[in-house]
Each structure stands twice: as C-alpha cells, then as structure tokens.
C-alpha cells in the first residue's frame, strides 16, 4: 500500500474525526484528505516533468500532512528540507537534486528572493502559512488544479521520497525512500506499539524527522496528532496532562530538559503508554530517572534515515524486564519487520559479547543514495544495510551501541557532518588545520567541538569565528566550543587522528 491509501481508508471510516490539532484549531480526516487531493491536482497541472522532485521547507503545521500526502498521490517525488536548515542549504539541495517545485513556509519569506535567484531550476514556488508578494499562496495554488479521481500508478519499489543530508559545503546525499518503506513503517508501529482506545500523539519535534514518520503511522491508525509549533519542556509536560497524550517522541536532549523542569511533578502522566526516545545516545541514569517519573512507558527507538527511521523499537515491556541489567540501555532486537545483527568486517554474524558493525535488513530499507552508486554499494551489501555504528549483542540478541565507526556527530537529535564545519573553519586566514569532533555532553548527547591549530604567529578571535560559523551553517551545526592546540595529533602519513582527539578531550587534558 502507498501512504495515501491508509489516509483514504481511515477517512472513509471516520471522516469527521480529528486528525490534527494545531493551536486552537482542529482538522478532520476529511479536511486533510481533501486538501491533499487538491495539492495533487494542482501539481499535476503545474507542467513539471514526470518524477520531478517537489521540495518542502516547512515548519510544523497542518499543511505539512496535506503537502506530503498530496505529493505521494502523484508521480512526483517529495523532498523535505529541515526547517532549521539555512537558505544556502535549501538552495544546495534544490540544485543538487534538480527540484522543480518548492513549498516554503512564510516564516522563511526573507529568503524567497535569494532562493528564486539562485535555485534556477525551480519552476514554481508556493508560500504556505502566509503570503509573499509575487508568489502564489498555498490556498490559491490548491485551487489551480482539479483533484484527481485516482492517484498516480507508482510501484512499490519506486522512489517517492528523497531525504537529503548536508548541503552547505559538501555535496548533499539523497536517501531514496520507496513506497514499500512507508507501509513497513506503519506496520512496525502498529505491531510494536499498539494502543487500546484513541491514539493521541504529541508532535514535539520537526515533522521532517522521526516525529513525522511516527505521525504518519498515527494517521494510518485513525489517531490524533497534536502538533506543537514551538515546544518547550514545560509546554510538553502540560500538553501530556491536558490532552491525555499516550504517544510521544523526544530526543534525549529534550527528555533531560523535561526532567529538569521545576514543574515536572505538577502534572498527571498516567495517560502515557509510549514515551519514545532516540536519535542520540542517552544516559542510563537519566533513562532510569525518566522511568521513575513517567512510569513504565519508556520506548527506545534506534533509527537510520536509510531504514525509514525505525530499525529497532525496544518496548516498555522489554525495558521492564531489563531494569537493573546492562540490557536496560540497549537498542533492542529490531522492529517487527526488521532483522538486526552485529557482524565482522567480512559480514559474518558475531557471537554474543563481540563488537562489530550493526547491520539490518527488511522492507524498511531505502533504494540507496540517488546518483551515488559508490556510496550505495558500500552501505548496502547482500541485502543488508551497514550502519557504520559499532555494537555488541547479548545472548538474546539485544544490541547495544558502543561506538561509531563514522565521524557523524549526533547533537540534540540531529546528525552533523564534521567535514561541513571544518570547511568553514579552514576558510579563516589564521587557521592552519582543524578537526571537528563530538564531545560528550549531558544535555545534547554530544556537542560540536572544534580543535584548531593556528598558523605560526597568528591569533584567533574565537567569538568572531563562532559567529561566522553560525552565519554559514546555522546554530545547530556551529561549534559550541573552540579549542586551540599547539598541534593536532597525526598519523605517520599526516592524517589527523580524531580518535586521539576524542580521548584527550574526554580526559580534559592539554586544552589551552
């Protein structure tokens, strides 16, 4: 099944039931379905070529669901862009994958002129949640076509979503999700995280990421998505209490902030059935604290964008059985529709207790990286996806992540590529060399840390460099700390040894 099929079936059963709540407004299943059909009709009439990419740069809002589902009804490919991306990143992704259409939130209207000038392959721009002179509004666009009688015939193995990564200084990578990925996602949540009675999901993180995948699985089951535009820890706690929320995903960073809130004991959390966490390493002490505060509802999600966000779901019952053991902090044994294992360099399954690379296979795997055959062949081998994470499994197959073979930094639930940050730092005239690594941080999981070697006789204003990084990369990717060392550790061939840097930082030695 394609995702619009789930929405349409649920609309037939409960057309007037609330599907999305946003602020003081409720939107029924009928309204979301009808608007998605209007989006499809207008796109079909737009004149863009078959299989063209249709990008969306949106904050959390009800239109997000109609736009995503509407694109899925067509022969076009949906390309979501992180709402926290910079305009330069947005343009880089549009250009790299030749997107022909863009739905942009009015909040980013200050960047419209720049995008229109530099993203020369765009054939149309639609402004959502507001208006901008010279560009079509979302409502006007939806009235420009005729809703289709039937959806386009797109097969189960065809790409329908292109998830992009990076884009400022490095070439973006496009993860090609196919139709069957979405039905597998819905099945995984239905089997691993069922709810008796109405399903009430609180969307507290960007819909472009894990929260959006979960929200779609909720729509497929007739639940309500309560979408928060600008969540704070206190607002999340209040919303759980007020709306009797039973489904919630937050990254560890937000969970820590919730636990630290002065009002943590002021609300009733008894409605919760699944408090899902993931997207970054978590403190076991904090996990146990959350278990005591929110009850036996903690649900670990281990996800990869290449595997439709959800490789493994460790249920509350599995957490309960693991309390007091090393397994309590594991990532589980794989989602119902996914097989997960730990293998050696030859791809051979390792026995319990031996470290190796975490791999997975199932209908959740994407079709590879668009336009990047080399990267696809390296990551997808013999039906398995090689995650780049180092793990160890126990005698029952529960896997724990112990390290990363790649250098990706996960900070606050977002993947950050050190090379992009390094490219910006190297532009500074005083910098001889640099290395960007993730340094353990209680709140963020990891913080972006830059270690710099200066040119002889040069000095560096770190505040000035930080400001430049934020302007170019955005606040998420910019370093939170800049350290200056006399020289960086290197191998015999001159390669900077990031592992040695991380060890030195962990001991707080030698920074000056």
Please describe what this structure looks like.
By secondary structure, this protein is of the alpha/beta class. The protein folds into three domains: 29-171, Rossmann fold (3-Layer(aba) Sandwich), CATH 3.40.50.980; 181-404, Rossmann fold (3-Layer(aba) Sandwich); 409-506, ANL, C-terminal domain (GMP Synthetase, Chain A, domain 3). 31% of the residues lie in helices and 26% in strands. The protein contains 16 helices and 25 strands. The strands form six sheets. Strands 2-1-11-10-12-13-14-15 form an eight-stranded mixed sheet, sandwiched between helices. The protein has a five-stranded parallel sheet with strand order 4-3-5-6-7, sandwiched between helices. Strands 16, 17, 18, 19 and 20 form a five-stranded antiparallel sheet that branches. Helix 7 (179-192) packs across helix 8 and helix 9 packs across helix 10. The longest helix has 16 residues, at 29-44. The protein is globular. The N and C termini lie far apart (58 Å). The model has no long low-confidence stretch (mean pLDDT 92).
Apparent shape: globular
Total number of helical segments? 16
How large, in whole angstroms, is the Cα Rg? 23 Å
Percentage of residues assigned to helices: 25-40%
Instruction: Give the total of beta strands.
Output: 25
Average pLDDT figure:
92
Using the coordinates shown, work out and report the CATH topology of the largest domain: Rossmann fold
Short account of what is shown:
The protein has 512 residues and is an alpha/beta fold.
């Amino acid at each position: 099944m394609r995702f619009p099929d789930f929405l349409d079936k649920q609309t037939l059963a409960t057309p007037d039931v609330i599907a999305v709540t946003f602020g003081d407004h409720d939107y029924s299943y009928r309204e979301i379905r009808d608007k998605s059909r209007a989006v499809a009709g207008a796109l079909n009439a737009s004149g863009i070529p078959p299989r063209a990419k249709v990008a969306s740069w949106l904050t959390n809002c009800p239109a997000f669901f109609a736009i995503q589902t509407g694109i899925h009804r067509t022969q076009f490919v949906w390309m979501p862009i992180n709402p926290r991306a910079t305009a330069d990143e947005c343009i880089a992704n549009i250009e790299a994958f030749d997107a022909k259409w863009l739905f942009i939130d009015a909040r980013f209207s200050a960047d419209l002129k720049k995008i229109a000038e530099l993203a020369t392959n765009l054939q149309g721009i639609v402004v959502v949640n507001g208006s901008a002179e010279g560009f079509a509004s979302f409502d006007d666009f939806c009235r420009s076509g005729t809703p289709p009688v039937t959806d386009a015939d797109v097969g189960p193995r065809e790409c329908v979503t292109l998830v992009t990564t990076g884009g400022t200084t490095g070439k973006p990578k496009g993860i090609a999700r196919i139709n069957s990925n979405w039905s597998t996602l819905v099945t995984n949540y239905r089997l691993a995280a069922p709810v008796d009675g109405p399903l009430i999901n609180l969307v507290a993180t960007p819909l472009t990421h894990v929260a959006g995948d979960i929200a779609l699985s909720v729509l497929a089951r007739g639940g309500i998505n309560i979408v928060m535009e600008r969540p704070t820890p206190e607002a999340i706690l209040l919303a759980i209490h007020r709306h009797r929320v039973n489904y919630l995903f937050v990254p560890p960073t937000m969970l820590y902030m919730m636990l630290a809130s002065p009002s943590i004991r002021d609300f009733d959390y008894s409605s919760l059935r699944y408090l899902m966490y993931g997207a970054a390493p978590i403190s076991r002490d904090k996990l146990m604290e959350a278990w005591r505060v929110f009850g036996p509802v903690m649900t670990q999600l281990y996800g990869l964008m290449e595997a439709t966000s959800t490789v493994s779901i460790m249920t509350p019952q599995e957490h309960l059985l693991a309390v007091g053991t090393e397994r309590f902090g594991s990532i589980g044994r794989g989602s119902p529709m996914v097989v997960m294992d730990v293998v050696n360099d030859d791809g051979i399954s390792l026995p319990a207790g031996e470290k190796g690379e975490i791999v997975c296979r199932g209908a959740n795997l994407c079709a590879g990286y668009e336009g990047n055959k080399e990267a696809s062949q390296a990551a997808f081998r013999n039906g398995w996806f090689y995650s780049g994470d180092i793990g160890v499994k126990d005698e029952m197959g529960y896997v724990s992540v112990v390290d990363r073979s790649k250098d990706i930094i996960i900070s606050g639930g977002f993947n950050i590529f050190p090379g992009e940050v390094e490219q910006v730092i190297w532009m500074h005239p005083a910098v001889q060399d640099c290395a960007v690594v993730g340094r353990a941080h209680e709140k963020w999981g990891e913080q972006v840390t830059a270690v710099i070697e200066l040119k002889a006789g040069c000095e560096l204003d770190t505040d000035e460099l930080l400001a430049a990084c934020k302007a170019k990369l955005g606040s998420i990717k910019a370093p939170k700390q800049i350290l200056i060392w006399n020289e960086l550790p290197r191998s015999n061939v001159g390669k900077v040894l990031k592992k040695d840097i991380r060890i030195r930082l962990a001991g707080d030695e030698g920074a000056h």
